[in-house]
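Team,

Forwarding the record for the chain on the shared tracking sheet. I've put the sequence and predicted structure together so nobody has to dig through attachments.
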Amino acid sequence: MTQLIEAKTVAARLGVPVSWVRKWTREGRIRCVRLGKYVRYDPVAIEDFVHRHEKPAAEGEQWVSRRAG
């Protein structure tokens, strides 16, 4: 059995705020495991989520980082 992870770990892996993970979970966009009042995530399901949302760049499109540095 895969060890389940918390929202903060999902957020760190995806590079998004925890609030975004929780919002998308509430909206049913991210699969989760509910254990009473606790919400946990299967790392394999998160990886599948990323693959489902991958989109190739359009021809000639360049990725631009919004981070300073």
